[in-house]
């Protein structure tokens, strides 16, 4: 295996005598019993670029567990004694048994091929160093070794803030202090990204009231730092000025009546635009809002929230008495004096079911058709039905349904309860 790929190799016995004899002589000189042993042991064992003393114990422990679980399968991958898919499957199971969680096939394949590449042909796959990641977690500096004074700037601000009841100004000063502290650390030669991470970790520890989590603190700090780098030296909270809550809209009762009345014939946006343009609203409203907004449909959110329910409640009355009755309170029907067989009722329904039918051209087609059931109004039982293989039904289909019901059950004692339209007006 060379760089994770299978490469061609040659036996020592197949080499020309000149090179074979030279290798055997060199092996005897250095104390090896054969040239193969010389070529295997002469390579320098691989070592990680990060010193072992600086690697976190958690990474070392994980690498040792992986070595115990994957060594035999890495050797099988190198020897080609089984298919790659079988080796990956067995390696995943071994990884779950040793570490308690599984990896995807590409991930486990990458770990094993990296171990083969690092081994360099020595076949020492039980070395745990081969299973360390490229960028392992380092041992963090102890409090004695770290620079405890690098956060003095922000600590001085935070110590003067009551964390139980921080004000908006306190939060603004805290963000400003964080930016000033980070600027000092960068000017002192610290790496910007690492200094930023250390600062956020420290501030979240000493001032958890500033954000709900360390991740949200880092996300909120990013735009603050951009504003600070752009020249803003006090990071004022802009939300109160941008929220729009400072523009209180006080509509008088007369304003509401005018807007509601005109809205009935064109909508609230039309009423707001016209009354504001003509200056027929109160002086305070006319002075607060401009008459030529970016959109002619613009209505202040607070005005729309206030008037929309009132306008909707009057729509039924505006459309007429019948609409008001239909949308008003309903009357519960009393079925005590209605018997089975008194009333029959029917209506149409387009079923969500397709069926085959022979079309006018003689070719089969898939249609949904029209389904017309006839029911007893009291018992709700389906007495008969008609299935019409067209998009629309006709009066002939209704007449056929009535006759079919009559042939089986007879006519209802009181009457047929149908809707208007073709059910009522058809002469057929």
SSE layout:
Blueprint: H1 17-29, H2 35-41, H3 57-79, H4 84-99, H5 105-119, H6 152-158, H7 168-187, H8 192-206, H9 214-229, H10 239-242, H11 253-263, H12 268-278, H13 283-288, H14 301-319, H15 321-327, E1 343-346, E2 355-358, E3 364-367, E4 370-376, E5 382-388, H16 395-409, E6 415-417, H17 422-425
Parallel strand pairs: 1-6
Antiparallel strand pairs: 1-4, 2-3, 4-5
Q: How many DSSP-defined strands?
A: 6
- Write down the oligomeric state: single chain
Percent helix, as a range, is: 40-55%
Distance between the termini: 90 Å
What's the order of the H and E elements? HHHHHHHHHHHHHHHEEEEEHEH
The geometry reads as flat
Alpha-beta classification = alpha+beta
Rounded mean pLDDT score: 85
Spatial extent as radius of gyration: 42 Å
Low-pLDDT ranges: 142-148
The helix tally amounts to 17
Strand order of the largest sheet: 5-4-1-6
């Amino acid at each position: 295996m060379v760089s994770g790929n299978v490469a061609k190799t040659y036996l020592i016995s197949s080499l020309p005598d000149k090179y074979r004899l030279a290798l055997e002589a060199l092996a005897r000189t250095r104390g090896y019993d054969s040239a193969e042993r010389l070529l295997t042991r002469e390579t320098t064992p691989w070592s990680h670029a990060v010193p072992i003393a600086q690697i976190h114990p958690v990474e070392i422990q994980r690498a040792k567990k992986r070595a115990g679980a994957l060594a035999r399968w890495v050797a099988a991958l190198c020897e080609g004694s089984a298919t790659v898919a079988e080796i990956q499957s067995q390696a995943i199971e071994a990884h779950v048994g040793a570490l308690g969680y599984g990896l995807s096939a590409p991930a486990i394949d990458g770990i094993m091929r990296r171990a083969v590449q690092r081994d360099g042909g020595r076949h020492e796959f039980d070395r745990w160093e081969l299973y360390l990641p490229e960028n392992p977690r380092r041992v963090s500096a102890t409090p004695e070794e770290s620079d405890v004074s690098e956060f003095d700037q922000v600590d001085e601000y935070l110590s003067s803030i009551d964390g139980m009841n921080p004000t908006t100004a306190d939060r603004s000063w805290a963000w400003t202090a964080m930016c000033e502290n980070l600027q000092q650390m960068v000017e002192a030669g610290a790496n910007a990204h690492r200094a930023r991470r250390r600062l956020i970790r420290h501030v979240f520890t000493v001032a958890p009231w500033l954000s709900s989590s360390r991740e949200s603190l880092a996300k909120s700090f990013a735009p603050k730092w951009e504003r600070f780098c752009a020249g803003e030296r006090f990071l004022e909270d802009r939300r109160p000025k941008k929220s729009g809550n400072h523009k209180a809209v006080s509509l008088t009762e007369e304003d509401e009546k005018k807007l509601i009345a005109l809205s009935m014939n064109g909508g609230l946006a039309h009423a707001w635009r016209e009354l504001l343009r003509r200056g027929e609203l109160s002086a305070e409203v006319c002075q607060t809002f401009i008459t030529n907004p970016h959109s002619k449909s613009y209505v202040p959110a607070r005005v729309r929230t206030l008037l929309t329910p009132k306008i909707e409640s009057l729509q039924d009355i505006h459309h007429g008495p019948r609409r008001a009755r239909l949308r008003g309170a309903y009357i519960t029907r009393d079925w005590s004096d209605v018997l089975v067989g008194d009333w029959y009722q029917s209506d149409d329904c387009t079923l969500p079911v397709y069926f085959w039918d022979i079309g006018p051209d003689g070719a089969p087609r898939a249609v949904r058709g029209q389904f017309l059931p006839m029911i007893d109004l009291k018992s709700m039982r389906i007495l008969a039905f008609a299935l019409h293989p067209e998009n629309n039904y006709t009066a002939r289909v209704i007449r056929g349904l009535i006759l079919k019901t009559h042939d089986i059950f007879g006519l209802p004692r009181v009457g047929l309860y149908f809707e208007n339209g073709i059910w009522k007006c058809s002469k057929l």
